[in-house]
Amino acid sequence: MKRQINLHNRVVNYSVRRSNRAKRMRLAVYCDGNFIVTVPQTFSASLIDRYVIAKSQWVISKLDFFEGLNKKQKLTFGNDGFELYKDKALEMVTERLAVLNQKHYRLKFNKIAIKSQKTRWGSCSKKRNLNFNYKVLFLPPKIRDYIMIHELCHIKEFNHSRRFWRLVAKSMPDHGKIIEELKIKGLSIS
Predict the structure, then answer these.
(1) Could you list the residue ranges forming a coiled coil in this record (predicted)?
(2) pLDDT at 93 over 60
(3) How many other β-carbons are positioned within 10 Å of the β-carbon of residue 27?
């Protein structure tokens, strides 16, 4: 659901995503200017608006930050970027994931897929399939490794519980810093 709100004399557009899995409200501002509020199914529009207003300084600061960042540099791939890079991305992810898994976890998964996703760096399905955005190819190696480790850990812990984060920390204790960098880059992982 698309919504509009006035924050500090500025009209801000945002999307509301209702989720059966959400237990609380979550705000996300992406580098392309998209602003998404994820909420539990039962939350009213007025409650969502009040929350956004309460967090308005944070929202505006993120929107301004990404607006400035986008003016400085913009990496574009065009419509054929996926076709050009998907095979190379699959090769890189397959090789690196094998090393990380063998070294730290030794978990079994079904297949690896490379996709052209607008809002995710990676995901893990209940069928134990690992999916990655082809643009991981262009990330610094440490961030790439984190994305692969994050999804790999979902094979064992299909959630974001304390046990999940301990599993991630087993091979990447500084994952908090990397999460912050990923927020700046604008896509999410799940």
Answers:
(1) none
(2) yes
(3) 15
